[in-house]
Amino acid sequence: MQTGVKTVQVRDVAESTVCVHPTAVCESQNVGGGTRIWAFAHVLDGAVIGQRCNIGDHVYVEGGARIGDRVTVKNRVMVWEGVTIEDAVFIGPGVIFTNDRYPRSRGLPEAVGRYGHKGTWLVTTMVRYGASIGAGAIILAGLTIGRYASIGAGAVVTRDVPDHRVVVGNPARGSCWACICGVPLDDNLCCPRCKRRFRLRADTLAAAE
Predict the structure, then answer these.
(1) What is the pTM of this model?
(2) What average pLDDT does the segment 39-58 reach?
(3) Are 144 and 125 in contact (CB under 8 A)?
(4) Cα-flanking dihedrals φ and ψ of residue 70, to 5°?
């Protein structure tokens, strides 16, 4: 146990603990064993976080958000209700998710009816297994980030991202394809690092047979 870190029992994981920094606030009882929640992070009641995650400083996880196992969430990330992050995803520092395509202040009289129930405004977002989102990226509401996809730093993602696709810019556009290990594939769809080979059919990348 690191100095200055307290442990609290996690109700839904038998005989497991989660480490919560003394300055962090964790209101959720649905946090998996081995997860660490660092300084000034705030996890609201109703959020679900899996096992062996790392939740960095100043992260905000709203009730209704779901984070899988072995997820790295770096500092100052905002994960709102309606966002689901599958296992083994990397979320870089300062990433912002959204959950409302046409937001208005709830104090606006003309918007009262719209915010009467969640079905009129809440839009869900999915980040699939093994994806990586670079520092400072913004993910607009209602999108799916595919398995092993990579989002460049500072990108503004306005459309779905296929499996293994690398996107960059504002608005984000495809630039290349990424291996499972994260390295961009060469022109022959081969990974320079691990030598895995892939094939491309109808804009879908899959491991070569």
Answers:
(1) 0.91
(2) 98
(3) yes
(4) 60, 35
Average pLDDT over residues 187-200: 95
Domains of the chain: 6-183 (2.160.10.10)
| Residue 3 pLDDT exceeds 50 | no
Lateral strand order in the sheet of 132-133: 6-9, 17-20, 36-37, 54-55, 72-73, 90-91, 132-133, 150-151, 165-168, 173-177
What is the distance between the alpha carbons of residues 26 and 48, in angstroms, rounded to a whole number? 11
Give pLDDT tens digits for 149-178. Answer: 999 999 999 999 999 999 999 999 999 999
Using alpha carbons, list the distances in angstroms from residue 69 to 87, 91, 159, 207.
5, 13, 25, 24
Biggest CA pair distance of the chain: 59
Is the torsion defined by CA of 93, 99, 102, 105 positive or negative? Answer: negative
